[in-house]
Amino acid sequence: MPSWNDLGPAFQTLRELDVAALREDAERSLLIACVGDGVLFERVALLLRTSEGRRYGSEGLDPLLFTTLAASAEELRNADMLLVLLDARNSLHRNDVAALNRLADLGLPMVIVLGYAELPPDLGAARPAFAYARIVTLPDLDAPDAALRLAEAVIERLPGDRQLAAGRRLPGLRTVITRELINSTSFSNASYALASAIPEQIPILSVPFAVADILVLTKNQALLVYKLALAHGAPPEFQARIREVLPVIGGAYLWRQIARTLVGLVPIWGIVPKVAIAYAGTYATGVAAWRWFADGELVSAVRMRQIAEEALQVGRERAQAMIATAQANGELNQNRLQRTFAQLRERMPWRKPSQLPPADDPMQRKS
Predict the structure, then answer these.
(1) What are the beta bridge partners of residue 67?
(2) Residue 99 CA to chain centroid, in angstroms?
(3) CA–CA dist 117, 138 (Å, integer)
C-alpha cells in the first residue's frame, strides 16, 4: 500500500495545497426556489434528493423552497436559482403568464421543467422573457432517465461556485457533477501536458519539465479527488480524504507516474502519448475516487486496468484533436522552437557547431 513517502516529492505539493476555498464553496448556503404547480413538487423533490450512491446522504440544510407562481419577488430574490415547475397538461392562464414574466425580471438563473410534455410547448406571451432559460421536458417523471435529465438542466444553470454545495445537499445531482468534474479535469490536465510538451521534446530540457509536469498533474488530480469527496457529502478534512482514497487509486497512480516520467524523458516518444496518458490517468483516478465516495466500492485491479485502457484510447483521440487544433492556430511549432534552441547551443562555449546535428535532422522532427 503506497504511503506519502513512497511516492516521493510529488506528494509534497499535496501538503501545501490551499483547499480552503473549495471547502468554503462546499459549505456555502444554497437556495433553489421551486415555483409552479404543486402536483409536481413531491416528484421533483424525490428526483433531486435521491442518489444512486449509498455511502453518504444529504449533508446540510435542505436547499429546496417550494412555493406557487404567486410568490412575491422579495420571497424569491435571494434564491441562487429558480426551478419553474409546470404541468404541460394544463394551459397557462393570463395570471400565470404575468407571474412568469415577473420571475424573468428577477434575472436569476432559471430552469423550466415541463412535466408530462413530449415537446416544449409554446409559452405564448411569456416566451420572450425566457429566451435564456433552460427548458427540460419530462414526459414521464417515473422514467429511469428523468432524474438525469433534470440534474443536467439544473447543473447547466446553477452558478459554478454553488455546485459543490448542491452536490452535498442534493444527492440526485451528484452523478452529473461528478461527470463534469472528471471530464473537465482530465481535459485540463491533457491541455497542460500539450502546452508543456514542446520543451520536453528538447532533450536537455526534458528532465526539469517532466518533474514539473508530475507536480502539476498530481496537484490537479488531488484537487479532483477532494472535490468529488465534497460533492458526495464526505467530511471536509482534506488530508483525511486523500489518505482514505490512496489505497483505491494507488495502483493506477504508480503506473501512471512511471509512464508519464518515461514519456517526458524519452523525447522520441512524442507528444500524443504524453497528452493521452495525462488524460487517461486523471480520468482513471476520478472514476476510482467516484466509486469510493459514492458507494464505498474498491475498484478491482482488473477493472481499473480496463478503465485506464478505455480512457487511454479516448485520451489518444483527444490528444490528436487538440494537437490538430493547436497546429491550425499556429500554437504548435516544434521545428521553430528546435531551431531556436540549436542556435542557442551554438553559442555555448563548451560545444562546437560541428558537433550539433542539423536543425532539420529527421530525429529532431519526430513527435
Answers:
(1) 35
(2) 36
(3) 6
Torsion of CA 126, 158, 137, 61, to 10 degrees: -110
Q: Which residue has the cell 560545444?
A: 351
What are the residues whose beta carbons fall under 8 Å from the beta carbon of 293, sequence distance 6 or more?
53, 55, 56, 228, 229, 232, 234, 245
Cα separation, 164 vs 22, in Å, equals: 8
Q: Outline where 119-173 has alpha helix (H).
A: 146-157, 163-169
Q: For residue 268, what is its C-alpha cell?
A: 522520441
Q: Strand, coil or helix: what is 366?
A: coil
Does residue 53 surpass a pLDDT of 60?
A: yes
Average pLDDT over residues 175-195: 90
Cβ atoms of residues 34 and 64 within 8 Å: yes
**Cell triple for 329:** 492556430
Give per-residue pLDDT as tens, 70-91. 888 888 989 999 999 999 888 8
Q: What is the pLDDT of residue 233?
A: 95
- Is residue 346 pLDDT above 80, yes or no? no
Dihedral sign of CA atoms 164, 168, 173, 176 in order: positive
193 touches 274 (CB < 8 A): yes
Stronger pLDDT, 130 or 348, i.e. the higher one:
130
C-alpha cell at 239: 488530508
Residue 6's Cα: distance from chain center in Å?
28
| Long-range own/partner contacts, residues 133-139 (CB < 8 A, 24 or more apart) | 133/84, 133/104, 133/157, 134/110, 135/111, 136/111, 136/112, 137/88, 138/113, 138/114
Phi, psi (degrees; rounded to nearest 5) at 344: -65, -40
